Amino acid sequence: MREFEIGSFVSFDYRGRTGMGVVEGFTAEGKARVRDFSKDKAITISEKFLTPLPDDYLSIDKLKSYFLFLEEFPEDYLRYDNYFEPGKIVFNIEFLLQVLKNMKNCRNELGDGLFKSRLQNWLHIISCYFHDEKNDRIEFSFSTNADCYGLMTEDAIFNYIMSELDGYSEENSHSTIFDVDRVSFGTDINLDSWIKDVRSFIDNRDLPLNEKEFSTLEKTFFIHLWRDPMVLRNSGNELVYKLYRRFVEELCEIKDFDGLVTAAYAYYSGDEVFEKDVIKSRDYFLELMETHPSGYFANSLGYIFYYGRDTGVPDYNKAFKYFSIGNAAGIIESRYKLADLMYNGLGVEKMEDIASKMYLDLYDEQKKDFLDGKHTKFADLAIRVAGLFENGVFGFIDYNFAYMHYLQAEFALKLREKDDYVGDGQLRKKVKESKKSLREKLRLENNSSVAVFKSLNSLLFGMVFPRDRFSCKVNKSASEVSFTITNARKHNGGNKKIFVSFNTFDFSGFVNEVFFVAKNARELYFKSKNITKSEGCFTFEFDSITDRGFYDNNRPVFELSCDGFELKRASLLDEKEYSLVEIHSHSDYFEAICNLDVEFGDIVLVEMSPDYVEKGEVVEEGEVVNKFSRKSNEMLFTESGYPVVIEKIKV
Fold first, then answer.
1. Torsion, Cα of 193, 199, 200, 204 (10° steps)
2. Can you say whether the dihedral through the CA atoms of 23, 28, 31, 36 is positive or negative?
3. Among 517, 521, 516, which Cα is nearest to 562's?
4. In the β-sheet with 481-487, what is the strand arrangement from edge to edge?
5. What would the pLDDT profile of 38-92 be if each residue is shown by its tens digit?
């Protein structure tokens, strides 16, 4: 039995195409022939891809009263048997204001439930049929269309309101456009506020800039565009600075969330527009915790009270309170700062063992993200773990292990220099002093070029493998047995490097491979058939190592009898230097290799690597927000794993 009849009005979603139409008949195979209104032609489609629409759904006469839209529709509408077809309608700001007023009336008359149902239908009609003056389909997503200073345009207002209505109709969480702390505040919409915002825009659009009054929406939109400190700094525009400060202060006066958040973070460290004032920052964060509690706000308050940045005197009781809130919200800084308080007995009873366990767990967690190339707090945890082994964790002191973790912290701090983390200068100083002290205890030499290890385990002590498995090549000759460990598999299309830290060489970094030689090798037994042999070289994948051999899925691959292993410093270092830039594109930041002459703010085309796309080569447009250089051992992926800037298209 057919679900639809001839003459039924339907919407369809098939092979990426969406639209609306009327059923004109059926094929011998039972498929429906649907007249697609947007194309004015019939398509053949299975009934399972169709959704029924009420008979009066597209009726012009019914639609007028259905949504209390407008008294009369424009005469240049094209019609198909008194039903909508693609026509021309200009969604200017005056039309939007009338729509919002009628929405408010409809909501008051019908109630929220029926209003939301009709809103879904109305948005569907718009998405299928309403075109702009160029006859291009309107996209209903938040647009950052702005003038040369970043002020809102008609397009931006329309697209923002449409996206919010769309989210409301789908019962998605509604959040402010200034989403710095990923806070969600329910699912309501404020039609009264939007009507006021749109009317304000109309009343002020033709006035000189210095005479304009701006709505809350326009102010929020503006600070959203310039909220990134690096973007704000690179603008270098005094008018932008003046408007930014004005809008933030005016939003704070009315207790607007976006204004309070912007002011709290700006006063915390200071920027081109706001002077540093931690007392003001503290008060704004406290106000936000009263109205919109967040783990991020609590974390900032924890730091203020922990270091006494507001009064000059630490308040560990308050620091413990707010770091506990941040810890419960999963904020990494709050988690290890809470452990700091417990380890030292500040604001809470001293609990060294519990705090030490927290440090070690957080270190392992952050290390995984660090090996995946994410910006993490790995350096902060490596320093703390190093301190545990230097001072005695669970009653056990290991200076070698401590030194290795200081090396890792030093390397991780170097990688995040471009991000300008607050307090990193002090961390680098602490690492330098700690390393110097431990070098004297361990009697490490700076000019070491060869390291000798008694076992494979002791050599691999300084190697940290990402979660992928690795391969080993074994070259056997009459006089020696040499090994090369390298990555066996690609990580999302780009080769993953091995993370190594060797105290003997005072070295920590990423390398493509590690080469070492068995000293006085006597016996080499191969025990696995899963070995590829080529020109005297045996290759296999392994996942575990013992003092005598390698294992593949717990099956022994080979065993070796020798006096020890030799590792040369030269095998670790690749001094090639790369010029890199940080790109901002579609609310995302990533690093790319760049051999072109570019500056901050330049718009460039980037050829994305397989690390960033699943299939094919994709060229993406983005803005240069930072420039820096790195050596090979400081790059997580091989050269082919990075996006590449191929063209500068706009200055």
1. 170
2. negative
3. 521
4. 450-453, 564-568, 513-519, 481-487, 470-476, 537-542, 532-534
5. 666 788 888 888 888 755 444 444 444 444 444 343 333 333 444 444 333 445 7
Exposed/middle/buried for residue 331 (C-beta within 10 Å: 0-12, 13-18, 19+): buried
> What stretch of H or E contains 519?
strand 513-519
Give CB contacts under 8 A, 24+ apart, made by 226-235: 226/150, 227/178, 227/180, 227/262, 228/584, 228/625, 229/271, 229/272, 230/600, 230/625, 230/626, 231/584, 231/625, 232/271, 232/272, 232/273, 233/271, 233/272, 234/600, 234/601, 234/625, 235/601
Which pTM does this prediction carry?
Answer: 0.75
CA distances from 127 to 18, 511, 569 (A): 9, 51, 63
Distances from the Cα of 410 to the Cα of 334, 378, 379, 428, 636, angstroms:
22, 10, 7, 7, 16
Cβ contact 296:332 at 8 Å: no
Query: What's the chain's Rg over C-alpha atoms?
Result: 32
DSSP helix, strand, coil percent of the chain (3-state; round to 5): 40, 25, 35
Which of 10-14, 73-77, 251-255, 456-460 is predicted most confidently? 251-255
180 exposure class (CB count in 10 Å sphere: 0-12, 13-18, 19+): middle
**Token pair listed for 176:** 């402010």
Q: Measured between alpha carbons, how far is 164 from 270 in angstroms, rounded to an integer?
A: 32
- Selection from 435, 611, 407 nearest residue 509 by Cα: 407
Contact assessment for residue 220 and residue 176, using Cβ atoms and an 8 Å cutoff: yes
Residue in the structure block whose two tokens are 């680098």: 428
